[in-house]
Amino acid sequence: MSVLPVPRRVALISVHTSPLAQPGTGDAGGMNVYVWQTATRLARRGVEVEIFTRATSSSDAPVVEAAPGVLVRHVVAGPFEGLDKQDLPGQLCAFTAGVLRAEAMNDPGYYDLIHSHYWLSGQVGWLARDRWSVPLVHTAHTLAAVKNASLAKGDTAEPRLREIGEQQVVDEADRLVANTATEAAELAAMYGADPERIDIVTPGADLDCYTTGSKAKARAELGLDPGERIVTFVGRIQPLKAPDVLLAAAAPLIHRSWQPDSGVPPLRVLIVGGPSGTGLERPGVLIEQAAQLGISEAVTFLPPQPSARLADVYRASDLVAVPSYSESFGLVAIEAQACGTPVIAARVGGLGVAVADGTSGLLVDGHEIDAWTSALESLLWQPDRLAELAASARGHAEQFSWEHTADRLLRSYGQAMRSLESSKHAVLKEHLNHKGALGLDGIGQRV
Ligand code: UDP
Fold it and tell me: Where do the coiled-coil regions begin and end (predicted)?
């Protein structure tokens, strides 16, 4: 098999969220981390990466060299502030114009490939791909059809507009990158994507930042009690992530554990992250829920944390909970395990890959509060079981590195470039054959 081509320069499109934003609130989450981590790894492999994202502040410089070999281009498309994600489809024309303009300032053939993230970026990539005659690789990150099939109570369904736009991108992309085999199967079954065009590329964790370490030290850093048992939620506060399920399920255990003669350490829930999306966007919603459940004193809220500090959060926790209704992968689960902390997660989407059920954590079916209470109890009050899972957590997480992700992405890029080359070659050949049949030479002269 011949060596696959490697792009010199990739246009990476991330319309709705910048890799420079702090993840954990608003629209900034796993996709930002993914874009940043893969861009820097690709750059280290000699591929220049230019990330196009929407300018959201007048202070965003048009071009920022964010790391060696990684440029972030802030495209002005609509007002800097006050524009929701659902308003962005109306700005795609302006955004695409900005992308095309950046390329036009350079030599033709400046970008070898486009990698779009989320369907909004896919729409931009589709047009730019046609204009530049380069391949389009697309990562969906989340799929509307999957999300709509397992909505949280009170959550808003993804609009038809997105379903249509997402379908178009799936149909148009030269290659699709899926986080797991589950996602690849969903793309095939729900969107009719040809499995031959799908590459399964698992995301990773920064294994140098997320490392095991002293729990006591991490708790001291964060001002947390060394004697408590701590279960932690990390992520954007939104219905899909189900932090409310964790609070409700932990409440009876908290009540019991805080009795003077309970025989178990007092339980605390730590919630790290900020509001995002619909339903739980009011910062006070979880605070009110904790008050109604009578557990306010046993719940600690922390705003979004940078990764180095988040590593301490994971180390300080006895267990990290990811009760999401749907999750295409779940970076938080891998990061927590990389810090040696077991994970309890809903058995949905990519979490079945991110957590080794019974080895590095526990998967729970459904979102029934009683089932979650029992599952939490089976771990939190069983220190030996927790210790056993913790001992395997780092090993499981080590399978998921961003280096591995970058290698697999390069393979996907290479395949996309090779297919395009052969289809261009086939078109040219057909064109020449056609001319030959008409008695024309290669430049259209009659022979
Ligand atoms: N995150 C962070 N600080 C926080 C909360 C979250 O940096 O306070 C990051 C976290 O490290 C993870 C990402 O946000 O990499 C969330 O990714 P995940 O896949 O868990 O969820 P998503 O946001 O993609 O739905």
Answer: none
Q: Which residues are annotated as a binding site for UDP-N-acetyl-alpha-D-glucosamine?
A: 22-23, 30, 236, 241, 305, 327, 335
Ligand 1: residues within 6 Å at CB? 23-24, 29-31, 33, 234-236, 272-273, 304-305, 307, 310, 329-332, 335
For residues 287 and 142, what is the distance between their CA atoms, to the nearest angstrom?
28
* pLDDT for the residue 25: 79
State whether 249 and 223 are in the same domain.
yes
Q: Whose CA is nearest to atom 7 of ligand 1?
A: 23
pLDDT digits (tens, 9 = 90+) for 136-154: 999 999 999 999 999 988 7
ipTM above 0.95, yes or no: yes
Three-class SS of residue 110?
coil
Model pTM score: 0.94
Ligand 1 atom closest to residue 305's alpha carbon, by position in its atom list: 8
pLDDT tens, position by position, 400-428: 999 999 999 999 999 999 998 887 767 77
Helix (H) or strand (E) holding 9, with range, is: strand 9-13
Is residue 150 domain-shared with residue 105, that is, in the same domain? Answer: yes
Q: Which atom of ligand 1 is nearest to the CA of 272?
A: 8
**Closest Cα partner for 413 from 57, 54, 45, 164?**
45
Place 389 in a pLDDT band, splitting at 50, 70 and 90.
very high
> CA dist 316 to 212, 230, 278, 349, Å?
10, 8, 30, 27
- Output the domain CATH number for residue 151: 3.40.50.2000
Mutate to test the pocket of ligand 1, among 34, 307, 309, 310 (most ligand atoms within 8 A of CB): 310
